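Supplementary Methods, section 5.1.

A reviewer requested that the exact input to the structure prediction be made available. We therefore reproduce it here, unchanged from the version used in the analyses.
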Amino acid sequence: MTTHVDTDDIQTTRSEKVLALVMTVFLLIGGIWAYDRLEIHHGYAEPVYTPAETAAIQDNENARQRLFAAQENVRHRRSALELSREAYRTAIEAHQPTAKLGARYRRDTDRFEAAQAEEQHARAEVDRTAPAARAAEERAAEAASTKSEHDNRNTFLLRLAFVLVALVVSFFVFSRLRRSRYLALASALIAAATILAFVMSVDYVTDYVSWRDVGPLVLSAAGAALTLLSFWGLQRYLAQRIPRRRVRKSECPFCGYPVRSAGTHCEGCGRDVVGECAKCSAPRRVGTAFCATCGSS
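The structure derived from this sequence is encoded token-by-token as follows.
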């Protein structure tokens, strides 16, 4: 002999709601951890150069270093030339011997001109090697950016699949457990999956890359569709549950108007509230699960 337990009127207690909230928090901790672990790479992808590109970049760097050294030498020679020129001019104005100072001035002038020529040569070398180095850097940077975008796209798709699976599983579990005492825990699963979907939407909603722009829209559409499906199932469930609850309260199963025990019709909508049992033909309240006379369903 089996005992039928009707869970239509089972109410969720405050303790169960608290436990459901705690379950939501722990599910979120695990869900966010898994969401974060789905990132394919961390940080910026380093550019990778071919041997020829490395040589071109090194040549340009060496040329820049020579140019810097030449510029420093020009500044040094200019300073020495200015000092020797002032000393030579002062000696001339003072009518002092100028042979050594003149030779020093001419020597510093020759050194300054040589330093200027060396600077021009170094600058020309930088200009010559710069295009190849710039092309190598741009090519490597574009390749690194492409790889980074590829990794980011795969990360997005993995996270989107993870969130959608979490939503589908949560709504499936909710539909399976909606008539059990574990309804609160199923609701916690839905809440955690919904919050996780919101986290992903916030994470990607401001992204400017075209392939991600539709991500929040897809997530929103999928969540809305699952919610509508769940709402439709809930309405079907309530359509079966509400009449039984009204019958237990001595109300019309159709409109909820109070039904007098002697009446066979509802005074609110006029429908029959008492019919015949299909098995024993005894009077039977419309909406009851079993016949009070023969016990048939």
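The CA atoms of residues 243 and 254 lie 7 Å apart. These observations are discussed further in the main text.
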